[in-house]
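Is it possible to get an amino acid sequence alongside its tokenized fold?
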Amino acid sequence: MPRPIEAIVHRDALAANLEVARQAAAGARVWAVVKADAYGHGIANAFPALQRADGFALLDLAEAELLRDLGWRGPILLLEGCFDGRDLETCSRLHLWHVVHDSRQIDRLAALKTDRPHRVFLKMNSGMNRLGFAPDRYRAAWLRLDALAQVEQIVLMTHLANADADDAAATLPALAAFEAATHDLPGERSVCNSAATLRFGERLAAGGAAWVRPGILLYGSSPDASVHSADAWGLAPAMTLRTRLIAVQELAAGASIGYGSSFTAAGPMRIGVAACGYADGYPRLAPGGNALGTPVLVDGVRTRTVGRVSMDMITVDLGPVPTATIGSEVVLWGRADAGTMLSIDEVASAAGTVGYELMCARAPRVPVTVAA
């Protein structure tokens, strides 16, 4: 019998979350962002549920090739663009769109010999300070691209650093910088990530934001979890990480649990040992001390971890679920068989991280099952 841990990908949730993005986009076209192997869900697993997107956005040429092999014939966008001239040849072969964020990428396009002009997204650095042309250099980059026979279409693009901030006004300087630099340039716009799509999609679509780029929201995690829960946005968890109890221990008052004895029983208690640990992608720093624990569901009942997370096991308090025994279901995040839900954002918050990291951290040794 295999170890009982598994990740379940819920295609119904992916499809429903895509529709949330489409409604929030208010008429803009939707890139389904599937970078990092669809945020740990698996591109091949997610693709059937996301085919109503207008395009797919990702980073790796191998992932783009996979989408073509899966039968996708629509737009695919490389979010970091091309890293050398050979990548441009692959873009020509696979009909890929790509981001231009650096003058050397324009140089490579100018040197490209092709009979198939490229569609590019010209990226402005509006305050993120990672990729993109500064606002005062953006027009010059646009003019260079516009003069190239190798370029068929230029979409104007930026990425908002503070769309998930508690104060929605934090996005205004970036939006103002983008508008000031592009107001008289022709072409479609792409401004919104997940947080901006949900919070400002209707307003920005009215201003010509023709493409939105939802990522994390597609997978059922809130992009601004400190402000809105996934439930508040109407998002459904697209991944369940679950396992089973493999042992039960009866502790006397004063007994401690796990490495470092970080949890000490105040009185007699039952604990369960679940087959999941940091080698499976569960966060090692998830708290389990006497003061704090990390939420889990045992047989659909909410309880918490106790003691440190180890490589292959965690321990959970069975006080709230006295009928639990070896073989009982343990949901680390997602949907329990009983219908109870545990948000990945809540688990991430307890561990001092974000849902994005937990999804992407799923270890290869954790088998994946797809639910319709």
Notes: The chain has a mean pLDDT of 95. The chain has two domains: 11-221, 239-342.
